[in-house]
């Protein structure tokens, strides 16, 4: 019901702006169409984002600690260290579950089959040295990206990316 009221209000606002445009012949009123359309678009994005985050599917699960992950999924088959300074934390490791084809990346449960690409990126500018990131391109829910800061070492970033790719290609025989 609330959604219908919002759509009705946006429709009334659009009609009012069009009528003002017709009666005054000023291009400024036509520019005002951006406001209700932008508002409607933002409301739609907000709703679709909330639906994706609360759909209850296992790939949307978020954990707070390694103990939470282990109590829900058991001990991981392997771990990939992404940040040595956070080695004891969930954010510094990727927990790999070969049998379930799952990864826990920074607390987020990700299906291995939903990862489309793994790459490394250097975020340096001409004025500052930048960190390397391992970027995971996701197929679902809408081609999102997961960025993992791995430090300033290009070889280490490449090793982390290679470890992730190897875990994606592996089968359950580990």
Using the alpha-carbon principal axes, give the shape.
elongated
- The residue fraction in helices comes out at 40-55%
- Overall strand count: 7
- The fraction of residues in strands falls at 15-25%
Helix-strand pattern, N to C?
Answer: HHHHEEEEEEEH
Tally the helices: 5
How many whole angstroms does the radius of gyration measure?
Answer: 23 Å
* Biggest sheet layout: 4 strands, antiparallel
Q: Which oligomeric state applies?
A: single chain
- Derived structural class: alpha+beta
Residue runs with pLDDT of under 50 for 5 or more positions? 53-59
Instruction: Name the average pLDDT.
Output: 81
Distance between the termini: 52 Å
Q: Walk across the major sheet and give the strand order.
A: 1-2-3-4
How does this structure look, described?
The strands form two sheets. The chain has a four-stranded antiparallel beta sheet with strand order 1-2-3-4, with helices on one face. Strands 5-6-7 form a three-stranded antiparallel beta sheet, covered by helices on one side. Strand 2 and strand 3 form a beta hairpin. It is an alpha+beta fold. The chain is 41% helix and 22% strand. About 4% of the residues have low confidence.
Keywords:
single chain, 174 residues, four-stranded antiparallel β-sheet
């Amino acid at each position: 019901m609330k959604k219908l009221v919002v759509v009705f209000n946006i429709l009334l606002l659009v009609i009012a702006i069009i009528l003002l445009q017709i009666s005054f012949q000023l291009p400024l009123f036509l520019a005002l169409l951006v406001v209700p359309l932008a508002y409607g678009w933002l409301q739609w994005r907000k709703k679709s984002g909330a639906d994706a985050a609360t759909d209850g599917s296992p790939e949307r699960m978020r954990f707070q600690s390694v103990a939470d992950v282990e109590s829900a999924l058991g001990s991981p088959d392997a771990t990939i260290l992404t940040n040595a300074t956070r080695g004891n934390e969930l954010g510094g490791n990727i927990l790999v579950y070969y049998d379930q084809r799952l990864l826990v990346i920074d607390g987020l449960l990700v299906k291995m089959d939903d990862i489309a690409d793994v790459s490394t990126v250097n975020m340096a500018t001409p004025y500052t040295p930048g960190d390397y990131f391992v970027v995971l391109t996701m197929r679902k829910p809408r081609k999102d990206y997961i960025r993992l800061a791995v430090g300033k070492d290009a070889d280490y970033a490449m090793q982390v990316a290679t470890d992730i790719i190897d875990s994606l290609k592996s089968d359950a025989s580990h």
